[in-house]
Write a structure and sequence with these properties.
single chain, 247 residues, alpha+beta, 2 domains, eleven-stranded mixed β-sheet, binds coenzyme A
Amino acid sequence: MPHGNATDEREPQRPPLVLRGAGVSCRVQSWSFQPHTAQLVLYHQQRLPTRADLAQWTQRLRELGYTKVRTTALATTAALRAESAGFHVVQELVLLEHTSPRRTRASSAGRAPTQRLLPAQHAAASAIDRAAFAGEWALATRAIGDVCAATPHHRARGAGTPLAAYAISGRDAKQGFLQRLAVAPQLQRRGLGRALVLDSLQWLARWRVQRVLVNTPTDNEPALALYEQLGFQRMTERLRVYEQALA
Ligand SMILES: CC(C)(COP(=O)(O)OP(=O)(O)OC[C@H]1O[C@@H](n2cnc3c(N)ncnc32)[C@H](O)[C@@H]1OP(=O)(O)O)[C@@H](O)C(=O)NCCC(=O)NCCS
């Protein structure tokens, strides 16, 4: 992906905004390092905005000075709605599931140690994210906090001293999610990613979660290999991120 108009973290962020439609609302925040790109975060993909809602929301965002609007990763039904409202796909993701986290081997022998990722380390985690994702999909410091807050419960872990890798996992009552994982490029292929995914699976297993989901771009071979090596299986459903220019 191109780097886009990435800016540094000193650029002032807009306050969060909620857009309301016919029986559905969504949260808007500016995309990490791109203050003029609005990210639409639907609260529920079960209840979708109408095309009229989307048209009204994009108009409001235009008035607020945004030049682009981008969705979160959408499943099929929501994706079709976005397409019908003039959005186009910018990223396609494979969805993978793990259905037996409790069978993950508990032994940590030979595994890189992990430790709690403190909020004070979110800036360091963002720097790793930026290097690992190398472009416009990287998370700014405040977005790392948003990922932690996205599920009712989360676990944020780091590896290495100084910090070389981090992962954020989440869970609700029934499901677990591997939300984010990044390893500093110069320290990849040394087992840090594997250690963080195993830590996540074991945490979820302790909470009796039986299904863990993760997604990654279709062309992310290293991540796909890592997840499949650890027992995740590809699902047939794809997720898609959509975008629309507002100029
Ligand atoms: C994907 C990523 C987290 C892997 O972390 P890592 O610490 O390098 O991975 P590990 O050393 O633990 O590797 C574990 C296994 O993953 C697979 N793997 C990791 N990197 C790979 C690569 N470049 N090519 C092929 N397989 C790879 C291998 O199966 C490997 O096992 P092996 O070394 O015994 O062959 C890392 O490459 C990264 O941060 N990438 C950019 C961000 C990203 O893609 N995040 C996750 C997806 S959204």
